[in-house]
Amino acid sequence: MSRRNAPSAVPRRRRTPAPRDATATVEAFTPATPSRREWWTAGIAVVLLWAGLFFPQLFLGQRVVSGDASYYRPFAEFSRARWSESHERTYWNPYVFMGIESVSSFADPRPQYLPDPLLD
Prior knowledge:
Layout: H1 22-29, H2 36-53, H3 55-59, H4 69-86, E1 92-93, E2 100-101, H5 102-105
Antiparallel strand pairs: 1-2
């Protein structure tokens, strides 16, 4: 059996012809830049979608309050009362989970980064 007719384990690859004009194939796949009108249309659509999503808060005076907001109120009141009475910061929040550092719980709405005289 000659080498030409012998079955090979690796199939031969077919050669694909190279494109005649390489720039023609590149230009076909470049996206068109959007016009000003398309940008304005997209911007107005986003603003209208945002206004529709937040319609109750923007136009009806409702507030965004999560369901857990009532759990954070006791610590804020406790922290404020403790500061008023003894001028000591509260560093532990027992009202979230089984207790958590108050700095990482964000339960006290007062700015905790301020120096002590500015917290009054």
